[in-house]
Fold this sequence. Notes:
By secondary structure, this protein is of the alpha/beta class. It has 13 helices and eleven strands.
Amino acid sequence: MNRDVYVIGVGMHRFSKDYIPKRDLYFTAGMDALKDAGIKFRDIGALYNGYIGGGMTEGIGFAKDLGLTGVPVTHVENASATGSSAFREAVWAVSGGQCEVAMALGYDDMRLMGNPMSRTVPGKKKLPSMENIMLPAGFFAMWAQRRMHENGTTIETFAKVAAKNWNHGRHNPMSQRRADHEVTVEEVLAADMVAYPHTAMMACASGAGAACAIVATKEWAQKYANGRPIIKVLASQSQSEVYNDGHIFMGAVVGPSSSTELTGQAAYKEAGLGPKDIDFVHVHDAFPIEELMYYELLGFCGPGEGDRMLHDGETTLGGRVPFSPDGGLIARGHPGGPTGLAQVWDATRQLRGEQGKFQVEGARTGMVHMMGAGSICIVHILQRA
Length: 385
């Protein structure tokens, strides 16, 4: 990056299964972030809207509620990685000198969407493809069963990942799923089966929500710190699939595992850090198999050691490197557009020491990772400066 970039404000509208007008979601998250940053909307030099299910001009219409300032507005869409992509665009707008301050704002209501991966041709029947036939739950179930076959992973291990994230989400006021008791492995296993080995309590929560992050130069970050630590973006990396001999095209949802491995390595190199320097991690944990695999692919343990890492409590709050401290996609929810920005919301507040009962003690460096159907992987590393 040409200039150092800092997160100066974050905001959210709680993820929810209730119907809330998308315009309200958008406005709440945006105003919350502006208040958090201590600036006005007229200070924003570029705005990146991230959404999957809305109309062509919907986002720019919602932006008018924040102010008519002439700010350039861009619609970003990259499946589950939409919010992460919008954040990356804002980071690079500031780094590249386009502006001093940029905003990324993601929102969606997944229940109002059809199948965004379904393809049709005018005047013809729907073209057959795996994306039209098999939902994401099917892809991740196949991935999970392959690990069970090759590594001896048990369904109880997958349930333990989910229970951990449900219990992390209990204390997050922005989480869609907030259990009133400590969730157990047995409870997760007793839920309705979605696609073996994943039950309904292992599947990510699908609802509505919005999240926002504002990034700026060091000068702006210091000016508006207001006594708080300033949070630097150490790395911003994104990669699509890389072709290898014997490459298997596995469908729009489950891309090759090498995508996460390569993007993570690039982020570590850019930041000048390694896995041992990371204090907490957010990943695309739509189903437990993903989180379990990302322990290994992001370098926090060796191949095949993810099960042991989980069972030793290393990825729970209080452990060596907590994963999904805010509940992740499983508990916090996954509305689509705002998901990656919700990760940035938590990471920023964790690094400031503001997360109360789900605070990662002594957190100085955090990693946020997202996968988007297609397949695209995005990794950011943030650090308290």
